[in-house]
Amino acid sequence: MLGYRTMNRPLQDQIRRVTDRIRERSRNSRAAYLAKVERAIEQGPGRAHMTCGNLAHAFAAAPVADKTRLAEARTPNLGIVTAYNDMLSAHQPYERYPDLIREAAREMGATAQVAGGVPAMCDGVTQGQDGMDLSLFSRDLIAMASGIALSHNVYDSAVFLGVCDKIVPGLVIAAATFGHLPAVFVPAGPMTSGLPNDEKARVRQEFAKGLVGREELLKSEMASYHGPGTCTFYGTANSNQMLMEFMGLQLPGASFVNPGDDMRDILTKAAAKRALEITSLGNDFRPTAHILDERAIVNGMVGLNATGGSTNLLIHLLAMAKAAGILIDWEDFADISEITPLLARVYPNGLADVNHFHAAGGLGLVVSELLKGGLLHEDARTIAGDGMELYTREPKVSGDKDVTWIAGAGISLDDRIISTFDKPFQDTGGLKRLAGNLGAAVMKVSAVAPERHLIEAPVQIFTNQPDVRTAFQTGELDRDVVVVVRYQGPKANGMPELHNLTPILAVLQDRGYKVALVTDGRMSGASGKVPTAIHVSPEALDGGPIAKLQNGDMVRVDAGNGKLEILDPTVLDRSFTAPDLSDSHEGLGREMFATFRQSVGSAETGATIF
């Protein structure tokens, strides 16, 4: 699709070693997966095996011209899986996309149909609410719903319309499961910049202190989240978009174009056309199984570290890789983090938002710098063509609303936002694995000041967020403290994000106390300056050591050395009794997810039911 030529360093040995380790670990599961995919490919397009009655049902409602093409089965039919809803700002733009995609298909003499819709939760709406208990489980439900959409077996390729936290991972799991089909991911872009993120954080902290009221807080929030598109901080949604480019499932430079920009519609049509160009009916067949290999997964891990991405992806990427027969673990992330420099400063790791990041050179510049440093598999296969060099380029309007890709800026237009491989913001990546006698955990360290990488303090135990807030308001936490919030793991209550704790803990830290959070739950992809050991495994409900802690026990959270430890090992000899968690298993649909809670795996293995 795109040509390239540049000089880059050879692949670094540690990247090669980690990739080889993953390949060896995954030998059997990957072989079984590829064998399944090859059987499906050998059967040819699904429509060739259908009865006339099957086919008549599949295109009964199609326009006459489309119906003729579908009946002849000589041109590809594109399936659209959409996570559209108009409550979720990032997904509201998708309302128009099916029409654009159908139009693009007809321009190529092909067809496109909406195969199905999938649910799409907004974690911003459910933060601190009971609905958040369904958030993580929605990922696997989205994968299953996508599977139902594609099971009609009348599609030669698929486009996936999704952006946010659990939605993209769920769609990727489905795309990998239907690995015999090509898959192109189509973003909607970030909302335009509103109230600066640091100002929003300041108002939140003042509200936590009781210095401003709810009216001023709401005014601030509405000035931050004010229009169509993703939230502009570098949380899970925007980390997802980065991953789709680094893993070769999205067109180069497509991630951070605003919904109202003319280029957005042009890229959407280009994505549809590309999905139709790479079917088995053409000369450039690129099934998803051949894109999602060990190289793509490692490239994604490098990108996550180099940009200080969301900790949620340390769960999701495991589940995505597993769907393609690839087995990765947190040690792989840790080893890659050791040699991956932090090249981006985007809120909460800096003051810039993703629009500023995109303007400064964006993902294309980060890819270019990582290639120069020998940190990416340059030869990875992508939907755009062969080689990651394609992803250093940026899209430009060409002719009559067409798109072409040209060389990117090549240098940072703001070195406070994007730095170079030779002069990074820090020498190691933004994510850290912690392990010790308290279990395994992860921490996003890119926004944590170095002097706070080691916290040693007595613990205060909680089993929910409201009790932490009450303890804060009564002054019980005005001291050096490790706040432990347990029974928040996937088996306990679906592993909700605990983002509402961020302003409280930030206030305590600003008062001069040494503060850390330890939890078997999750934090938002926007987790910031407070050291936070999350995803603790085994979780409390599984008998993990976190369940045996008592108020006053001393715990060390040491990001520098990757340690998470109870200082008195006799704590491990205690017995424990799990609290009654039934209140978090009822209401707002939580009753329907009992089977998920019973069958879900640990965070350390992707917290998946598959």
TrEMBL record:
<dbReference type="InterPro" id="IPR004786">
    <property type="entry name" value="6-phosphgluc_deHydtase"/>
</dbReference>
<dbReference type="GO" id="GO:0009255">
    <property type="term" value="P:Entner-Doudoroff pathway through 6-phosphogluconate"/>
</dbReference>
<feature type="domain" description="Dihydroxy-acid/6-phosphogluconate dehydratase C-terminal">
    <location>
        <begin position="417"/>
        <end position="607"/>
    </location>
</feature>
<dbReference type="GO" id="GO:0051539">
    <property type="term" value="F:4 iron, 4 sulfur cluster binding"/>
</dbReference>
<dbReference type="InterPro" id="IPR000581">
    <property type="entry name" value="ILV_EDD_N"/>
</dbReference>
<dbReference type="InterPro" id="IPR056740">
    <property type="entry name" value="ILV_EDD_C"/>
</dbReference>
<dbReference type="InterPro" id="IPR042096">
    <property type="entry name" value="Dihydro-acid_dehy_C"/>
</dbReference>
<dbReference type="Pfam" id="PF00920">
    <property type="entry name" value="ILVD_EDD_N"/>
</dbReference>
<keyword id="KW-0119">Carbohydrate metabolism</keyword>
<keyword id="KW-0311">Gluconate utilization</keyword>
<dbReference type="GO" id="GO:0005829">
    <property type="term" value="C:cytosol"/>
</dbReference>
<feature type="binding site">
    <location>
        <position position="231"/>
    </location>
    <ligand>
        <name>[4Fe-4S] cluster</name>
    </ligand>
</feature>
<comment type="function">
    <text>Catalyzes the dehydration of 6-phospho-D-gluconate to 2-dehydro-3-deoxy-6-phospho-D-gluconate.</text>
</comment>
<feature type="domain" description="Dihydroxy-acid/6-phosphogluconate dehydratase N-terminal">
    <location>
        <begin position="76"/>
        <end position="388"/>
    </location>
</feature>
<dbReference type="Pfam" id="PF24877">
    <property type="entry name" value="ILV_EDD_C"/>
</dbReference>
<dbReference type="InterPro" id="IPR020558">
    <property type="entry name" value="DiOHA_6PGluconate_deHydtase_CS"/>
</dbReference>
<comment type="similarity">
    <text>Belongs to the IlvD/Edd family.</text>
</comment>
<feature type="binding site">
    <location>
        <position position="164"/>
    </location>
    <ligand>
        <name>[4Fe-4S] cluster</name>
    </ligand>
</feature>
<dbReference type="GO" id="GO:0004456">
    <property type="term" value="F:phosphogluconate dehydratase activity"/>
</dbReference>
<keyword id="KW-0411">Iron-sulfur</keyword>
<dbReference type="InterPro" id="IPR037237">
    <property type="entry name" value="IlvD/EDD_N"/>
</dbReference>
<keyword id="KW-0408">Iron</keyword>
<protein>
    <recommendedName>
        <fullName>Phosphogluconate dehydratase</fullName>
        <ecNumber>4.2.1.12</ecNumber>
    </recommendedName>
</protein>
<keyword id="KW-0456">Lyase</keyword>
<dbReference type="GO" id="GO:0046872">
    <property type="term" value="F:metal ion binding"/>
</dbReference>
<keyword id="KW-0479">Metal-binding</keyword>
<comment type="pathway">
    <text>Carbohydrate metabolism; Entner-Doudoroff pathway.</text>
</comment>
<keyword id="KW-0004">4Fe-4S</keyword>
<dbReference type="GO" id="GO:0019521">
    <property type="term" value="P:D-gluconate metabolic process"/>
</dbReference>
